[in-house]
Specification:
With 378 residues, the protein is mainly alpha-helical. It has 3 domains: 75 residues, no CATH class; 110 residues, no CATH class; 103 residues, no CATH class. It is 60% helix and 2% strand. A two-stranded antiparallel ribbon has the order 1-2. It has a two-stranded antiparallel ribbon with strand order 3-4. A hairpin with an 8-residue loop joins strand 3 and strand 4. The N terminus is likely disordered.
């Protein structure tokens, strides 16, 4: 492998003009090695990272390359399908808790899992032996297929509802070397296809995420493939964990707190959402506070206008809406200080995979530390 890597660098050095204006493959290779000296196939990681950034028209700057490297290193230590210590036990425990506290129901479900499929390794045994997220994902798919062939679901299949229902109940929500949001990857794939995706299409996207290039492709897009307006990468790292524009929206919630003397959660979600990411009609604390602020400060924002603008909170255009600008200008008039544009969201992270307490802020800080080391590496 060392010989291959040396040849890789020498060959790439002969054609630097192909990468004018950005880092060369040899430079990216060295940054990967600096981040993780014992990484397997560093030339492959460097080549895939460069290819993905060029395909997505993302500038191959040291800052952008180091941002991606920092997330990959933080999430997986440069392993395409990382293993999780004790995953089988964690998954069985989570399954048991999800079934509920009805002993009879739990007994029925666990008995079915332990006896299907007959004559082969049962689903429960596969769950217990799982070492990676893909192991659990494939087990879940096999269970879905088993149940589907045992009952008539043709109407659900034809309506396109079945794959949505199945995907929403898949507990493997982040995947691969960058722990990309499966929801993000699937939505991105649907937009690019311009056609409804079948269940097999969903599975194909998930399979791609478990590969080196696939994990990087969707991870880089989630991390760098949008206009953020941030002046520091740490806010992108927080968004990668909490959702796009969470850092901007958390700062907006901070502004509302200052103006209304309230204590809204600064989690970056201005509205309430269901499991599929669709905004609910229920009024969130932020929306309620905005309505009150508009009335008390005579901002002239109707309830319908506020709702319409808040529906854009996952987009860069939210910062140009009447609601955002009115609140920002009111803050400037009141405090005589410019309104903050971004802050780290206040979110406590909860996952069976975490061995210690972590927040979105501490996650972003950990990735930012790796990023800063990469940026100054020689």
């Amino acid at each position: 492998m060392q010989r291959l890597s040396t040849v890789f660098i020498l060959l790439l050095a002969l054609a630097p003009e192909a990468f004018a204006g950005g880092l060369t493959p040899g430079e990216v290779y060295l940054l990967v090695k600096h981040a993780r000296p014992n990484v397997k196939e560093p030339d492959g990681w460097a080549a895939d990272l460069l290819d993905v950034m060029q395909v997505q028209s993302i500038a191959v700057t040291r800052e952008n390359v180091c941002a991606a490297i920092a997330v990959i290193d933080q999430e997986s230590n440069f392993v395409a399908n990382p293993t999780v210590p004790g995953l089988g036990k964690l998954a069985e425990k989570a399954l048991s808790e999800k079934i509920g506290n009805v002993p009879f129901l739990r007994g029925m479900v666990m008995d079915w899992l332990d006896n299907h499929p007959k004559g082969e390794t049962s689903y429960l045994q596969r769950i217990r032996r799982a070492r990676s997220e893909r192991d659990l994902d494939l087990t879940y798919r096999a269970m879905v297929n088993d149940l589907g062939t045992a009952s008539n679901m043709s109407l659900l299949v034809q309506s396109g509802l079945l794959n949505r229902m199945i995907e929403e109940r898949n507990n493997i929500s982040t995947i691969g070397s960058m722990q990309v949001s499966a929801h993000f990857a699937l939505e991105d794939a649907r937009k690019r296809r311009y056609l409804p995706m079948t269940l097999s299409d969903d599975y194909a996207v998930r399979d791609e995420l478990y590969t080196r290039r696939g994990g990087i492709y969707y991870g880089v897009k989630q991390l760098l493939g949008y206009n953020s307006g941030y002046d520091r990468k740490i806010y992108r790292f927080a968004d990668f964990n909490a959702g796009r524009y969470s850092s901007r929206n958390a700062a907006f919630q901070h502004i509302i707190n200052m103006l209304t003397k309230q204590k809204l959660a600064r989690d970056g979600d201005l509205l309430l959402y269901d499991k599929s990411g669709q905004a609910l009609s229920n009024i969130s604390g932020t929306e309620k506070a905005l309505r009150g602020l508009s009335a008390s400060a005579s901002l002239g924002l109707a309830d319908a206008q506020i709702r319409s603008d808040l529906l854009l909170e996952k987009d860069d255009t939210f910062a140009t809406t009447q609601t955002y600008l009115a609140v920002k200008n009111h803050y400037l008039r009141t405090t005589r200080k410019p309104a903050p544009f971004a802050e780290l969201p206040g979110i406590d992270l909860s996952s069976a995979k975490l061995s210690h307490k972590m927040t979105t802020a501490s996650y972003a800080a950990a990735v930012d530390k790796r990023y800063n080391k990469c940026v100054v590496a020689k």
